[in-house]
Amino acid sequence: MPTMGWMRRCLLSLGLAGAMGVTTGVVAGDYDAAPLTRDFIAEMSQSYGFAPEQLQALFGEVERKQAILDAISRPAERVKPWSEYRPIFITDRRIAQGVDFWKAHEEALARAEREYDVPAQFIVAIIGVETFYGRNTGNYRVLDALSTLAFDYPPRAPFFRSQLREFLLLAREQQVDPLSLTGSYAGAMGLPQFMPGSFRAYAVDFDGDGHINIWSDPTDAIGSVANYFKRHGWSGRGPTAIRAQVSGERVEEGVVAGIEPVKSVAELRALGWNAQDPALRDDLRVTSFRLDGDKGPEYWMGLPNFYAITRYNRSVMYAMAVTDLANAIAERHAAEGAKP
């Protein structure tokens, strides 16, 4: 985890710099004098005990990033069909490097399986989809990103203001330099791309060194992903999604927009959806969706663990990409383990 200027900035983030006789020597930045910043500083001081003068100095070093506003305001791309979305993530390189990541962190992944009951391949796949195993974690200062969006992006200002608050709290709790931590343009952080609120709720010190570091410590990242899944309902092994064979005129009535498990297996069967699997009890409610595959429409039932994946990203295609990558990594890991 980056620690340049750690003592000065860490004390500053804790509101102790003045008491310790530490001088900041900062120059005015983009937000230190803004009315919205003053309101935010007042809230953090009154509700969370931060020293106003120290937060004022901290925001004096924050920079407004037009590139972030451009990125978040950019018109949404055409939604890709599954036939185009899947190849982005299910590649030989991503599978091979997922196996390498698994082998490099075998002990931590095995312990995460034992403690959280989440299979290693799904932990690896999340990190593979999110950041290519830590290669693409983002290079914006998180404080710049969250401040820019909290104070200069009205459509989602309340959300990013809440994440800015969570970020300052986590920096204080973890005793890290808030200006040293980097992430995506939206403020997502580390190998698993946790937002600050998710960090505070689900990230864990899996290596027991007294700090939670999801930026450069794969062990903490592994434990944190596993804990996130467990806290969102992951339970054991078994399939996450099962493809259904369909027939009849009412098939499309089974397709539900969104990720919620609305229809039961019995209801879907009455609409012409059929899948033979002992995991599919008649009363089980599943996420029922259609994907546009290479060979035409595909109809799927997402089971409870599939729904847990969608809590990471509210998209059935995202959850399917994680599922397919996890299965491919597990298959290759097993095959390579069986080689003489």
What does this structure look like?
The protein contains 15 helices and seven strands. It has 340 residues and is of the alpha+beta class. It has a domain at 33-72 and 138-216: Helicase, Ruva Protein, domain 3 (Orthogonal Bundle). The strands form two sheets. The chain has a five-stranded antiparallel β-sheet. A two-stranded antiparallel sheet has the order 1-2. Helices cover 49% and strands 9% of the residues.
Key attributes of the depicted protein:
signal; globular; five-stranded antiparallel beta sheet; 7 strands; 9% strand; two-stranded antiparallel sheet; 49% helix; MltB-like; 340 residues; alpha+beta; Helicase, Ruva Protein, domain 3
Quick structural gist:
Residues 37-326 form the Transglycosylase SLT domain. The chain is an alpha+beta fold and 340 residues long.
SSE blueprint and pairings:
Elements: H1 6-14, H2 35-48, H3 52-59, H4 66-73, H5 82-89, H6 92-104, H7 106-116, H8 120-131, E1 140-141, H9 142-152, H10 157-174, E2 182-183, H11 196-202, H12 218-231, E3 241-246, E4 263-264, H13 265-270, E5 273-274, E6 285-293, E7 296-302, H14 304-310, H15 316-337
